[in-house]
Amino acid sequence: MAPETVGGRVSSQAADIYALGVLLAHATTGRFPFGEGPPEVLAYRASHGKAELHGLPADLAEAVAAALAPVPGDRPTAAELSQTSALTRTTPVADGPAPGKVIIALAAQAQETADLGEGADRDLPRRTDVATRPLHRAADGPTRSSATGQTSPAGPLTRRALLSRLATGVAGAVLGAGTSLAWTATREPADRSLPDRPLATAPLPGLPPTALWRFDDVTARTTLLRVAGAGRYLVTRGETLHAHEVRSGKEVWERPIAFGRANPVLLVGGGRILVQTRDALVLCSLGDGRTHWIDRTFHTQNTTVLELLAVEGDTVWLHMGPAAGASATTHALAAFDLAARRELWRSELPADFVYELSLTPTPAGLLVEVLPEVDPHRDPYGTRKVPLACFDRTTGRSLWQRTYEGVYSGPASAVDETGRFYVLSTGRARAYDATPGSQLWESTLRFGGQHSPLLLTGTLLCETDPVNGVVALDRDTGRTVWQQRLDEPLQWFLLGTMATSASGRTLFVPTRRQLAALDLRSGERLWQMAFVGREDPSPLQLLATPDVLIVAQPSVVFALPAV
Question: Coil, helix or strand for 451?
């Protein structure tokens, strides 16, 4: 409380400003500016002493010191505070974790404050179940966390908007050792291919969703698999496969698995998964992990299954190759009938199809492309050749093969279900009709070598790079539909694989330190969530289910509502 409030005088807006100064000092440093003690003692220190603001950035310390002036008339107004450099900054001031016990309490306070509003504010539903403690492990049951903040909208600054803005980048939910969330609520429109259109915030910024649950991995070995169904999602931890409930995060079952090289699990329908091990194919129930059958016919002394490529109905396609320690063996594409448990055909792959592959079933045949080798030291501006081949779906006969030159060295290609082939090549996005090999279009927008994997969704091709931000192109014409820039550097090693909600309305863009949600139709930035104190160098992992977005890093998995 402000000194005058303790003395019995009527509270005023100046007392609110004082309280905000205390809040910011405590949230940033973990200490109260005048120490601990009874209200009367703290009021005396506030009236006669100097606030201890060591550890605050210089511009923030200046703003907080002004807010903590002992005389009410010497404190700035809300409008004056909103114009200080500390409160107009859009980038984080530090990379270290905020005090964990403070973050959770502040998150609850920030949400309650945002919900109070003023007479001029839109009425918002009152939250009565906000977090006042760190989230528990999901194994103890689902726990709700609320952590929100928002940037100030254009126009007159309301009390709700100011308080929420002050909390941005500070309030959050603790996600793991030294890691916290800072929720940034925005409503920033995308550039709809109009270069002269200025970016602006909408009058009423949106709020990020409330985290539904969190699950901690103390061993920090969690890898999220892109497999979900029957109310379950899958992760690996070392050589163990774990299934968790999507709605609560509780672990349902686990089984030891000696995984093969890549793509260890495929969802094959009927609530089942096909698991690739070093010596067998295992068909399991996704619901309870029960084994339906184990097949070892593909695993011999010389050959083994290297990858599970794709499934359609009861047919699964496999990448076959030499077993560990085997003499030279050719690589092959094989088709396997899950219902009859028999091999349908096997076709030798071209000589350069020895790395990780991607297979897309199309009406014209099975399109197989060679994916780039995973190289953390790759040159993002280097180029490579992309081999692409087509095989007959029924017999496995090779139909044609061609190579595309000048494709950027990262994950710069994708094939859709119609047989179109998209690449980022020598500065442009290009689309080809893969069967005849003819080019369909070339983008007018230029792209660099630093980009995330391409994402095909609906009628759009989505791409991300440091120069353009997030870009959506029309898949039929290559025309730029919208662009949206994010408030952080977008080097290739920070960019994760994007995902869309099941409704097709929201695009989720993960990086190493943030998660942004964009409106897929307009590119409007709905909200952005910052992660403070993360030590893992890899980008966030995402999995979109019909109701929930699963977000993972090696030490923690949490869930957000997805619309």
Answer: coil
Q: d(Cα 404, Cα 387) in Å, to the nearest integer? A: 7
Give dist(CA 368, CA 191) in Å, integer: 35
505 class by beta-carbon count within 10 Å (0-12 exposed, 13-18 middle, 19+ buried):
middle
d(CA 28, CA 103): 9
Q: 173, 164, 158: which is closest to 212 by C-alpha?
A: 173
Model pLDDT for residues 399-442, shown as the tens digit of each residue: 999 999 999 988 999 999 999 999 999 999 999 999 999 999 99
Q: How far is CA 508 from CA 18, 182, 285, 527, 540, in A?
A: 38, 16, 29, 10, 11
Q: What is the separation of C-alpha 381 from the centre of its chain, rounded to a whole number of angstroms?
A: 24
Q: What is the pLDDT of residue 206?
A: 53
Distance between CA 122 and CA 117 in Å, rounded? 8
For 183, phi and psi rounded to 5 degrees?
-85, 125
Give every CB contact of residue 69 below 8 A, 6+ residues apart in sequence: 75
C-alpha triplet 241, 300, 330: angle, nearest 5° = 100
Task: Extract the residue ranges of the chain whose pLDDT is less than 70.
Answer: 7-8, 10, 40, 89-189, 191-207, 259-262, 328, 532-536
Kind plus residue range of the DSSP H or E element containing 175: strand 174-176
The Cβ of residue 383 has, within 10 Å, a number of other Cβ atoms equal to: 16
CA distance 556 to 534: 11
What are phi and psi for residue 12, nearest 5 degrees? -145, 180
Please state the pTM of the whole predicted model: 0.69
DSSP 394-418: TT--EEEEEEEEEEESSS-EEE-TT
- Alpha carbon 192 to its chain centroid, in Å, reads 24
